[in-house]
Amino acid sequence: MTTLTPRNIEILKIIIEEYIKTGDVLGSKLLLKKYDLGVSSATVRNDMATLETLKLIYQPYNSAWRLPTAKGLRAFVNYMMQQTPEFFLEAENQNINTKTLREFSDYVHSIVFNLAKNTKEIAFFVLPEKHVVEFSGVATFLERNHARLGDDTFQLLKILEDKPQFSKFIESFQIQDGVNIYIWEENFLPYLKDYTIVLKPIEIDGSPGYIGIIWGLKMNYSFNISAVRGII
Length: 232
Known about the structure:
- By secondary structure, the protein is α+β, with helices and mostly antiparallel strands.
- Helix content is 48%, strand content 16%.
- Strand 1 and strand 2 form a beta hairpin.
């Protein structure tokens, strides 16, 4: 059974972080040019071969470059889940006040707005039993991602506009306590294959609900996971 060395893990992190931040793909020479790993190009190629064997990265078009697979990104996200501290967006978000409909509406708007503002992704709040679905950050997300995602962004808008359908979509996931992350093909709707969804189950006045974000390729995994983990 092939096992990963600390350097294998470091190279996988570098490949994924470069891809997330820039959309660029890396070969062994470029990787060593940008990062001082203290080893030869041949050693890095061997490390990449190990990562390919485990199907954590793959080689597109018979080039020297490597891209992360969904399995590789999942391994990276699981690692980040263990490393990130909680980040509280606003202290008052820890105190839920639902005495009146207006107070509750203001509360929902506030936390979704702040989550979108800080992550620069689409933030959502879903409380199915009360038929509450709130979004924020859609315009900013489209501005940042339209050039890369093209017409797929319109497919995303369709599901956001149909709030009852979006609520059912979120409920359809197998959700565990704490932060849940669904990557690429784990988002089973065809037009969400290029997105990652992170959500956290919550409970308000005995009603189950969900808060989270939808993000595209270039994102800050560590910060965004922390933001959703700490908001309620």
